[in-house]
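## retry 2 of 3
previous attempt timed out at serialization; input unchanged, resubmitting
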Amino acid sequence: MYKTHFGLKINPFNLTADPAFLYLTEDHREALAGLVYAIHARKGFVVLTSEAGMGKTTLLATVLQRFQGQIHSSLILNPALTPNEFFETALLDFGITDIPSSKALRLALLQQMLLRMRREGRFAVLFVDEAHKLSSELLEEVRLLSNFEEADQKLLQVVLCGQKELAATLDRPELWQLKQRVALRLEIQPLHDAAVAGYIQHRWTKAGGTLPTPFREDAVERIARASSGIPRVINVICDNALTSGFADGASAITANYVVKVCRELRLGEHFTLAPMAQTSFPAGPQQLAVDGPILRTLDRYDPAKRPVTGLSRWFRKPMIHIATTENV
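## retry succeeded, writing output
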């Protein structure tokens, strides 16, 4: 609706999980590196958690895109299933269409597929989004899938991706065996205020904007406060504020537009037009360079604790084809 008015090619604040718009904060970059590392090293189980709306699904889509022909995957987006339905859904997404009713035969088909992937040098990965909705019974069934292995490596990689409740779920006594199998835990925190400004500018540029965003400094501060640094909420606020600005023929989005949108969306009782402390926001995106901060969570894989971890150096190798700050 407002693309032509603001000089854009596409909508910069869509809610779809588009890897082209992935904004690499330090946490997102670390999570992406961890997912790629765990799959490439055939680590077995990986857990990725964050608040809702932090871009976990976009990270999964990015991993699938970057591995391209190297990976054979099954992606379960709605795990609110019975164990039987879950297993059938996973097999179907792996491309196994002639599914027998017998569980033993289903496991045999899965094993044959995993061994074939191993011979072809490809990675078989089961991605489970919204994994915090999995029951203990179903998580135990998922754990048993890790029994598919050879002497030196796991045949099936499992990525459990969910909200923070997933961490508490894995702490249940009955899931102790699954918890033991988790090779890597990754977590994404909300964006800090300065990163919100960079996030907005990043998406604006990716959408074809050749100039700085029309969001005034006071508007960005309001967005940061209302969204609590959650990208999905930032997108909703920005999209609605731009629509309102377009309707008024405005060239700039001020705090008044953001306040109006937040009231309509009921995002907080504290939104008034009272004076606010001034905060300086960088004009450009706050992306991290390839030689940026050390991957904190993954430091433990470097026994010498060198300033740049072994995983960091591995992650920068061209063969991984992971998007850097210039092409994400």
